[in-house]
Amino acid sequence: MSEKFSKIEHYVIASDTGARDGIGVEIYVGNNMVMEIFRDDTKKKREVSLFQDQLDLELVEQAINLFKEEIPEDFQD
């Protein structure tokens, strides 16, 4: 992982076409997913889900920047 994303131990880019339709970035600390940022193409929204309390602000900021770099901004039909 680059210095730019030094707080992110591991991430996965994942698409979902089941209950929701879109693509996102899952952020992991150790083996635990602590956050997901998801572009929901059905709702035309970008959403953040936190799975751990009191996340480091720098980790959250880096995750948002990673999402912006990895996930295209335009919604899909």
UniProtKB/TrEMBL annotation:
Name the record gives this protein: Uncharacterized protein
UniProt superkingdom: Bacteria
Origin species: Alteromonas portus
